[in-house]
Amino acid sequence: MRLRIIQLLEDGEMCVGELIEALGTKPAVTSQQLGLMKDRGVLSCRREGNRVYYRVSNPSVVRVIQCIRDHCEEQG
Fold first, then answer.
1. How confident is the model at residue 76 (pLDDT cuts 50, 70, 90)?
2. Element (H, E) at 51
3. Distance CA 19, CA 24 (A)
4. Phi, psi of 62 (to 5 degrees)
5. Strand-strand pairing, 14-15 and 51-56
6. pLDDT tens, 25-47?
């Protein structure tokens, strides 16, 4: 689930509702994972009214995932 969250946020920020819909998960589970990733410095967030938007705060995370993706494509 955490990898999928990173993939969804690679192109920019999304609000929690959009992430829940894209992941097809329960709000509590999604919020828990987002909180863990935020606490570890992977994600950051901002509040706009009653919506919370998340984004990748550490670009190295996206680069690592891209390297893994590239490697898998080469092997496939």
1. low
2. strand 51-56
3. 8
4. -65, -40
5. antiparallel
6. 999 999 999 999 999 999 999 99
Closest by CA position to 27, among listed 36, 16, 38: 16
Q: How far apart are CA 48 and CA 68, in angstroms?
A: 34
Q: Read out DSSP for 2-49? A: HHHHHHHHTTS-EEHHHHHHHHT--HHHHHHHHHHHHHTTSEEEEEET
- Compute φ and ψ for 74, nearest 5 degrees: -65, -35
The pTM of this model reads 0.85
- The rounded distance, in Å, linking the Cα atoms of 30 and 26 is 6
- C-alpha–C-alpha distance, residues 15 and 34, integer Å: 11
CB neighbours of 4 closer than 8 A, spacing ≥ 6? 23
Whole-number Å distance between alpha carbons of 55 and 67: 20
Assess contact for 64 and 72: CB atoms under 8 A: no
